[in-house]
Specification:
By secondary structure, the protein is mainly α. The longest helix is centred in the middle third of the chain and has 41 residues. α3 crosses α6, α12 packs antiparallel against α13 and α12 packs parallel to α14. The chain starts with 8 loop residues before the first helix and ends in a 12-residue tail after the last strand. It contains 16 helices and two strands. A two-stranded antiparallel ribbon has the order 1-2. It has two domains: about 120 residues; about 140 residues, Serine Threonine Protein Phosphatase 5, Tetratricopeptide repeat, CATH 1.25.40.10.
Length: about 375
Amino acid sequence: MGGDEAALKPLRGAVDAVAVLRGGSADPGVRRTALLQLTEALEASIRRLLRDDPQAPMELRLRALAPDELPASELMGELRRRDRISIELAAAFHELGARARRVHGGEAPEPGDVELALRTAERLEWEATAIPPAPPVPAPEEPVFTEDGTLVHPVRASTPAPRHERIWVMVALVLLLIAAVGLVLRGRADDRGLDEGVALFRSGDRDRATAQFRAYAEKHPKDPTPRLYLARIHRRAGRYQDALSELRLGLKAAPDDPGLHQELGFLLLDTGHPNEAADRFRTALRLDPKSSEAYIGMVRALRTSGRMTEAERVLAQAPPEVRALVASQPPVAAPGTVPGTLAPGTVGVPGTTPAMPLDSAATSMP
């Protein structure tokens, strides 16, 4: 996400509607018109995100601006599959669409409708323009003085060193400074390598992203992030054993990383092992109780395994945006199959996917 400034043109054109909603007009008709205008502008900008995606198939890009050919639910699914928008934005837009339809039917907009529309607009603008900040450079420590100007930790007077010794000390300090700058620049280059891999992954260039993540993983074997993305790439391509191998390496280095447990849950779910998947999502939620995707995966795994009562209990505890997004999903298939829905765990294959074998280590990993 980020760098999609052009897609925001429709949203920026709804500035008057935003002003009306923020100003709190007392006329319900004016609020109703402004809410519908802002909702239409939001959908137009979101559709442009897909239309302008160079990695998306041309046929899909041509359909992006036609609601009759690409309904909003499919639009959200395509953008989520390409990691162009967050799950929070997708859920907020889905909920806003339901409220806009109610208002369009003649009901007056409620304060919560207006708040949701403004929050969704802010979220879209942030995600479309956000650029990862550069790592901060630590400020050098300053000497501490008292109010009268006395150094708190004074240095004892000493006999000045001979001139040639001072020169060698200065040379040594310069060399140390050069080495330190080199280490800092190397660290920043490594960080850029990981950031570039994530950007390539989000743009759909999986081959170049894989190369970036592998290079980073070799230099940083204890960092679970490249293993997580490599596993996700393999899973979405149907290379399930390769995905499992990456997750093994990641969990060996970071056994308490919630993202790795969550990805293993989706791998188990995509290969027809919903009971084991539910256990992994439960672990991910224990490590990160605010993970929307872990909640969605947990509900899907429980429903797929036929544990409907437990699934509804988990769904009742989930954040509102998760409940809204799950409500928009098609019914799950019978136990033993994995539905090809638009949820984050799918592999993008229509219909159902029969259970596929993973080696036994998949369910006994730490």
